Amino acid sequence: MTASPLRLALAGTAAVALTLTPALAGAAPGRPGEPRFQEGADGAGDPYFPLAGNGGIDVLHYDLDLTYQLPDPAPAPLEGQLDGVATIELRATQDLHRFNLDLRGLTASEVVVDGKSMRFDQVENELRVSPRPKLKTGDEVTVEITYGGTTTRPTDIEGALYGWVTTRDGAMVVSEPDGSATWFPVSDHPTDKATYAYEITVPEGSVAVANGLLEGSETNDGWTTWTWDAPDPMAAYLATATVGDFELDSYVAANGTQIIDAVDPGLPASASASLALTSDMLVFFEDAFGPYPFNSYGAIVDDDSVGYALETQTRSFFSRRAAEGTVAHELAHQWMGNHVSPGRWADIWLNEGWASYSSWMWSEEQGRTTAQENFEDVMSTPADDGFWDVVVAEPGPLCLFCGAIYDRGAATLHALRVEIGDGAFFELAKTWVAEFGGGTATTADFTALAEGVSGQDLEGFFDVWLYTPEKPTTW
Ligand code: ARG
Ligand code: ZN
Questions:
Q1: Rounded to whole angstroms, how far apart are CA atoms 416 and 20?
Q2: What is the 161 CA–ligand 1 centroid distance (Å)?
Q3: Which amino acid residue places its CA nearest to atom 3 of ligand 1?
Q4: In the chain, at which end, N or C, are there fewer CB atoms within 10 A of the end residue's CB?
């Protein structure tokens, strides 16, 4: 094919423009006001997890259409088959000729942008898409990714099970901090919150439990499709699509929140008895933190274990047993961690400190151990114990879930409460949620707000409690 006169004319114009404006020669390509197409970064810029999340895009919505089944008989080690179509609405935050999503252990077979098939490839845990036309800053597109593969039992950098964890009767899906990429193409960092919708198809008899409200379920030819709607902005690590033998229990809590619990019927009644306290706890935490921020709540109690519980948004996950203190902890996370999420993973103490402190508050409310007694218990740890070696506000990626993040984090909040008084402390808690809810915040945001609300200079206080790897003695 010969070049069109138009294209020749344009090429000629560009050459002339370059020779006539030598000032531009050393500048980056493109002229002011014209697009400068680049590759989106392969990570969101979090030093603890450099490849988590992606640069240049802001995901607005994930529509996850999943089909999942276990082979019969179940292989050892356990494996499942997951096939998905992820329909992702995203906005370009820079001019892009390519952008990434995170995808780990699964293979994409087709990527469609605004209805047209696009070039893509997969390098390690990154799916790279080259959209044409290229994206200009502010462009919103729909990216449909067909993908799938064999599911296993993935682990995080500490070796703990997480992500899409295959079980005997389905999967436990709990992805903190960066495990969502094991089950869908995702911008896997809390700074990129989005809304979610799910259609999960599983063999008849299995139940798929996701975030938000159950829209319905439909059975055809031995398969059941479960439809869930989660319209509240959510960090990717809080998404779930847990599959298994579950009994669903729905009711409305005293504060008006719709509750949907999913409990494995193979468990003894004692494993989930504390869920009956959810309604009272919602009222209690609303009083402390403000209105419950989401469209629903509830618990998943599975008969398999990842070794911990997770505050999956609107639907907390419990391994084998939902103990009362943990039920309070995961519920409090809905405000502290989920509605207000960490801006960097280094800020994890804001999640775990608040959730642990909330559990202390609940215990005191119930007439058991008081917050002061729990504080004294933490402070009875000898000064030479390794517990005090953690810099709470900069723990490193291998210590996100160290005991100190939880217990010294909670003790920090109790000491702060004593320091600034109950009035300022609970005003701080409510303002924190109101101001940063729906997004993320950092330790610097928290210390600044604490000083603002209390009117006190707290630099010395936070230095001792959050930044010094020693047991606090004076503050
Ligand atoms: N945030 C959870 C909780 O406090 C713990 C998550 C642990 N995650 C992990 N990958 N080890 O209950
Ligand atoms: Zn927690």
A1: 64
A2: 10
A3: 310
A4: N
- Cα separation, 174 vs 317, whole angstroms: 8
pLDDT band at 231, cuts 50/70/90? very high
- The CATH code of the domain that includes 417 is 1.10.390.10
State residue 74's pLDDT score. 87
Listed residues 213, 244, 275: the one ending a domain: 244
Looking at the structure, tell me whether residues 322 and 366 fall in a common domain.
no
Q: Which of 220, 244, 268 is the last residue of a domain?
A: 244
Amino acid at position 36, single letter? R
Confidence of residue 136 (pLDDT cuts 50, 70, 90): very high
- The pTM score is 0.93
In eight-state DSSP terms, residue 155 is B
Q: Give the residue whose CA is nearest to atom 6 of ligand 1.
A: 310
Distance 404 CA to ligand 1 centre (A): 13
Pairing of strands 57-69, 107-113: unpaired
The closest-lying atom of ligand 1 relative to the alpha carbon of residue 156 is 10
Query: Which of 305, 401, 402, when mutated, tests ligand 1's pocket best, judged by the most ligand atoms within 8 Å of its CB?
Result: 401
With residue 68 as reference, give the H or E element that holds it: strand 57-69
Give the pLDDT confidence of 2-24 residue by residue, as tens digits. 333 333 333 333 333 333 333 34
pLDDT tens, position by position, 49-107:
999 999 999 999 999 999 999 999 989 999 999 999 999 999 999 999 999 999 999 99
SS3 call for 177: coil
Q: Which atom from ligand 1 is nearest to the alpha carbon of 307?
A: 11
What tokens does 104 get?
A: 């780990």
Q: What residues are paired with 263 via a beta bridge?
A: 247, 301
For residues 314 and 372, state if they share a domain: no
pLDDT of amino acid 474: 96
pLDDT at residue 30, rounded to an integer: 57
Residue 19 forms part of a structural domain: no
